[in-house]
Structure formats: C-alpha cells, structure tokens
C-alpha cells in the first residue's frame, strides 16, 4: 500500500470543499430526517421520545396519505406523459425548421424562465370564476362560467394543465438536443430502403433517442413528485384534498400541525420512491455495468 504523501494530496484538497458542502447540506439533513422519523418530534416540545416504527405504521393507516399517494401518481403520470408527447412533437418541428428556429425556440422556452410561484399565481387569476380570462373567453363563445379551482372535478386537471404549460419546454429542449445529435446516415439508409416517415421515426429516431428519453422522463418525474409551489399558489391542496400531493401533506403535517416526525416519515417514503426510479433508469442506461478491462 502506498503511503499518503503531501504532493499527492492535490485532488483531495480540490474535492474537500465540495465534500464538506455535500456533508453539511445533503448527508447530515438526510441522517437527521431519518432520525426524527423514528421520534415523536415536535419543535414546541422539549421531550422528543423514540417511537420506533409508529410513524410509519400510522402513515400506512392514514387515509390522507393514501389519497395523497393516489393524487401524486395521477398528477405525475399525466404531466410526464403529456409533456413528453407534446415536447417530442415540438422538438421534431423545431429540428426541421430552417428559418427562425432560434426565435421560436426562445419564445417556447419563456415559461420555464418563470418561477413556479409566479406561474401558479398567474393561472390562479386566469382561472378565477369571476374575472378570469378563461371564463371571459368561455362566455364569449356562449358557454357558462366554470369554477376551475373550486370544483372537485376540475381542480386537479387545472393543476396538471398549468404544469404542462410551464414544463413542456424543458422536455422539448432536452429532446431537441438529442435530435440534433442523431447523424444523417441512418435516415439516408432508411430512405434508400424505402422506409416511410413513420418507420424512420419508429426504427431510427426512437432507438437513437432512447437514453435521452429515459433521462428526460426521470428528471421530470422527480421534479413532478416534489411539486409544492404551484399547489400553494393555486389550490392549497383543496378543494377537499383533491390536489393534496405527497409534498403538500409533508408541509401540512409538518409545518401546520407541527408533526415533524410524521412528516419526516412521509419524506423517507418519497425518497424511497425517487431512489427506486433512479435505480431503474440507471440500470436501463447501463450505468451500473463496468466494462471488462484486460
């Protein structure tokens, strides 16, 4: 074993600041979160007794948790699938443009330049049942006003629509970068073989984009799982908890009712879901495989 020498310490010194920041802002909070998930932890109580798995048992018996898990699954599945489909369509159109591509691209990217709180507030005003612009246009076409955010059947679709409006450009720009990286030769070979546009898309474009697609879907799924800002500005989890996601009930239980231990347990379950998704995608990308070296 080689002895540690000062002249060999350069890489460690360069890495040290980043590792210290990672330890302080990622690893320590995670350990603390795991610790309080096994406690009846409240900031207003000096005693924080260890309760073992009681928070987790209570969590799986709590109807609000299962409702939030169901709402989160619907929200994530709807937004990610629609954002991918629309984003891919826009990316293909932009990739084929020869004039004004950068201008259209800049315009389409405007929504992701806005803070989620601003977007939530903007759509809250637009969907207002009294003076919202969406109801104005509905009346203009002879339809009656709709209470978008106070109707239990429409509140979640309204939230999904808002998320799609803001984050579809994110999916679009990732897929557009992938499309620009595909060489022309496979398309030329497909054209010589007499492949139709659909066959070229299915057998050339999609396989070439597969890894980019996995990464884009993973990033949007993780981001959708932690949605909070837009919900706070638009619905605050209502009406009657129809827009109450896992991230929202963490805030609701932890900061409104000061049940920090219970909120931490929900965070751990959410973390397990995210890590499971990450592991699945990394395996699909073959990032866990180590090439054999002679």
From TrEMBL:
InterPro entries: MetI-like, MetI-like_sf. The chain crosses the membrane at residues 12-34, 71-94, 106-126, 260-282. The keyword Transmembrane applies. It is found in: Cell membrane. It holds the Pfam family BPD_transp_1. One of its GO terms (biological process) is transmembrane transport. SUPFAM superfamilies: MalF N-terminal region-like, MetI-like. Belongs to the binding-protein-dependent transport system permease family. This is Binding-protein-dependent transport system inner membrane protein. It comes from Paenibacillus abyssi.
């Amino acid at each position: 074993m080689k002895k540690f020498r000062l002249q060999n310490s350069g890489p460690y010194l360069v890495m040290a600041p980043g590792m210290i920041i990672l330890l302080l802002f990622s690893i320590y909070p995670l350990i603390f979160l795991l610790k309080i998930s096994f406690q009846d932890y409240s900031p207003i109580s000096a005693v924080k007794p260890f309760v073992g798995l009681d928070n987790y048992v209570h969590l799986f018996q709590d109807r609000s948790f299962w409702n939030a898990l169901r709402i989160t699954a619907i929200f994530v599945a709807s937004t990610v699938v629609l954002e991918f489909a629309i984003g891919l369509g826009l990316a293909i159109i932009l990739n084929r443009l020869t004039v004004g591509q950068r201008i259209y691209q800049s315009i389409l990217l405007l929504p992701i330049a806005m803070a989620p709180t601003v977007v939530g507030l903007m759509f809250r005003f637009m969907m207002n049942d009294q003076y919202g612009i969406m109801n104005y246009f509905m009346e203009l076409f002879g339809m009656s006003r709709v209470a978008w955010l106070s109707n239990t059947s429409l509140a979640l679709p309204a939230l999904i629509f808002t998320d799609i409006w803001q984050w579809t450009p994110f999916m679009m720009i990732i897929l557009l970068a992938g499309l620009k990286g595909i060489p022309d030769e496979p398309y030329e070979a497909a054209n010589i073989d007499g492949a139709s546009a659909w066959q070229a898309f299915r057998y050339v474009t999609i396989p070439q984009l597969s890894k980019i697609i996995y990464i884009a879907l993973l990033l949007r799924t993780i981001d959708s799982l932690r949605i909070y800002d837009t919900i706070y500005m638009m619905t605050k989890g209502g009406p009657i908890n129809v827009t109450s996601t896992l991230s929202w009930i963490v805030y609701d239980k932890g900061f409104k009712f000061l049940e920090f231990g219970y909120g931490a347990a929900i965070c751990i379950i959410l973390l397990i879901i995210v890590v499971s998704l990450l592991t699945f995608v990394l395996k699909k990308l073959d990032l866990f495989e180590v090439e054999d070296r002679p």
